[in-house]
Amino acid sequence: MSHASIDTAGAARVDLHRPRAAGERTVESHVRNILAKLGLTNRTQIATTASPD
Questions:
Q1: What is the spatial distance between Cα 52 and Cα 8, in angstroms, rounded to a whole number?
Q2: DSSP line for 1-53
Q3: What is the pLDDT of residue 23?
Q4: Domain named HTH luxR-type: which ranges (predicted)?
């Protein structure tokens, strides 16, 4: 979530500087979704696909 969207969601300015952590299951779920949408099979392929080269 970007700082702008956090701010518009009503978070206090102090909250903008706190680190945000995602749970392990949340990350696994996001990775699974990305793999499925891009037709990839592993995280290395995600990194290669996202690389600006």
A1: 30
A2: --HHHHHHTT--GGGGGS-----HHHHHHHHHHHHHHHT--SHHHHHHHH---
A3: 87
A4: 24-49
Residue type, 39: G
Question: Distance between CA 49 and CA 52 in Å, rounded?
Answer: 8
Residue 8 corresponds to which amino acid? T
For residue 18, which phi and psi values (nearest 5 degrees)? -85, 135
Q: For helices 43-50 and 24-38, what crossing angle results, to 10°?
A: 70
CA 37 to mean position of chain CA atoms: 15
Rounded distance between C-alpha atoms, residue 38 and residue 44, angstroms: 13
